[in-house]
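Continuing the series of single-chain predictions for the mutant panel. This is the parent chain; the variants come on the following pages.
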Amino acid sequence: MTEEIQNKKSEHPTDEQQRVVIVGGGLAGLSAATALLGRGFKVDLIESRRQCGGRAASFEDSEDGSLVDACQHVAMGCCTNFLDLCEQTGLGHYLRRDRTLWFIGPDGSRSACTPAGWVPAPLHLVPLLFGMNHFSLLEKAALSWGMVRLAVRQKLGEGDSELTAAQWLRSRQPERVIQLFWQPVIESALGESIDFVGITAVRKVVVDGFLAHPKAADLLVPTEPLGEIFGEKLVAWLRGQGAAVHSGQAATGIQYDESGKATGVLCGQDVLWADAVVLAVPWRAAKRLVPKLLPPVDESFVGSPITAVHLWFDQKIFDLPHAVLVGRVSQWVFQGEEDESARNEKACHAQPKDVEHHCQVVISASRGICDGNRDKLLETVVNELQEIFPAARGARLIRSRIVTDPTAVLSVRPGIDRVRPNQKTPVENLFLAGDWTQTGWPSTMEGAVRSGRLAASQLLELAHMKNDCVVKDLHKNAFIRLLVGQ
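Parent structure:
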């Protein structure tokens, strides 16, 4: 429910608590609000949409009114701040931890790849890497050596001299290993083609996402719609802690005093007074609100598209929680979570009426896919599922929906970190948040959460308060630290 903004321009609040206004209700803004609550601040959060969550959002299915995630979001075991946020707010049990990664080769062969939990890093990866049945022994050895070679401390170039992932890999890895491992893994993790992403970002994925810790590569999959987890439950938690959340309220500008400090956020003719402001909106929106404080983001920043193909069949078409489909247009397929009404009908031994089984195929870096022909894309995806899963051949496709976000993630191209701004700005009490800011991470849920916590950290430093918002990465043992130079 929307909380109306009641402070007009002539009504400056007189309470003693410092008021922080956070603009943007995505994961960055939500995490900033969570970090500041309980520290003596009054927190107001403004979100222009009806529901918070940002890109971690759901849409209402036109057929049955249920919530369906626009695109499947997953975290990994290395996403320490995202997981800490979920635990802190009581949402951790809505994440299913999958230790096994399922790979399906071009010939349909299945590989259950599970890191070992009883040996130290990096030996825990041996069963994962050598469990890929679609590779020969030599290819598995080449892949393992490639990961170690990338992880070893080295100069990978800076700015324009930095190589792309494709350039680095094609001189060091077999082409088949690139196509059937590196390409799907990198494009899924970074949301961008190997032809565009910088090799430094790939090294981050390899070190933190695979080599660093036996639990780093665990897959954390939401078991409820993102709209419920972040748009409803997390917002309810914030309100329960005293935060005011104003959904359906668009910020139109920032108000400053004569000294240049931010004093409030304009929402049309109204103003929400503030002692500090955290701007947690996408980069183009931030540029419109504070044009003089940001680098030329329109020229320097490029978004990368992600497409989700939602399919509803009259029967379950596969028996896995998820699978990485290598060597195909489809990259990941996720089993839809069975809704509560269907579970209740089964419990009562009732015959479900018009049962639909939902699954979702996710394709990262999807620009120009199937020449932009959605009918061709749908046909291609369905045919690929039928080739892989025998049950899909006898299933009837009831309906489908294709959702594409053209700027789903920031394209982490060579040199991008030179123009990603810090959370601190030239305005003393105005801070930036968002996965496009400097976080040390690519454009992910972890990056978004870290950005919000980093912005909160800057504010706490300004207030001379203890700064403990950002939690540490997974522990790296002595050998890994020596290997990667940390």
